[in-house]
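Structure ticket #2291
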Amino acid sequence: MGMAGDLFQDLPPPIAAAQSHPSSINNTLQESAPKPPPAPALKSALKRPKPPPEAGPEKRIRFKTTTDASEKQVIEAMQKITSHIKNPSKFNKASKLAIQLIQAGSIKEATSDYFFSVLEAAMLSMTTCNEPSLRDDYCALFSAAQDVADCLSKKQKNMLTAWTIRSIWANDLFTDDSFVFSKSTGRIKEAISSLPVATEDDDIEEAVALKGEITEVASADAEENKEEEPDPFGLDALISKDEKSKSKKEALSGSKKDDEEEKRFLKSQREALISCLEIAAKRYKTPWCQTAIDILAKHAFDNISRFTKHQRDAIQKLWASIREQQTRRKQGKSVSGKLDVNGFEWLQHKYSTEKISIRHSVGGSGDRRCQQWLG
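Resolution: structure written out below.
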């Protein structure tokens, strides 16, 4: 007892540790840190081979408290990040906080839907990610997001893939590093090669969508609408658009839903790749970029059937413009470095004003509803 008395004589009573608030990590750290034991007791404790018995349990309790509070705190943090990250002036800070959550291992299946909401809010505008002041932050966020992609549903992974093309690949085209530029054009070429050939239905849907006469939901159900009977009693006017969309979705078979999801994914991919071609074309005035752009544009032209009609028109104009520049170089004439990218700019404007949302397919309950939607 004499030895034990010497060891604990100057320490506060054990009940003092329990008085700190269990729900606040910061309070626990602030209350315990400023109260070290007096020098003599500390010296005697350090001389002994084993730590004081209370040290182990106290650490375990503090860690358990952190773990218990973690999921709720992470969800609340991501909800706040989602509300701020859509504002370009707050993107820098909000994206850094999201990256910290990824690095801390806080993105798991239970919190993945909230994290996806962060990414979706960041990409509400399809062009903000390419603004000079935000490029690095977008690259950092979506690069970090690749580490937790396995936590996302199939549909969410598809959207992440399309957003990655815009936020990383496209931004790499602004680089002053020829190696990075060449690597990005190489990835874009591979993605173009992986696209399926566009169908007549793809062309029709694109034409209607670009006229602003269709929404993403209506596009998915276009074929079903053809088979509907007339409404002699005018009841359609009494049914809300959301209810009609919901009833049509419920009637679709699992395979049909998978097909529609694949169509949406391909649409997003094609639009993202067109955006990359436009950005690359605008860099043609930089001499060391020209060869890589020549090869990329030629590849897009050779695979033009994989794009929809308006996209094909833009690619044809780009390739014709590049061939004109190549002819001038061969003839020893001055090269302006300016390509005809009007077709791309028009498409980019149209796509950027189109509201991108998947909320009608994946709701707040997350994977369960998504799996049901996918069949």
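Closing remark: The chain has two domains: 21-28+56-152, 174-221+251-375.
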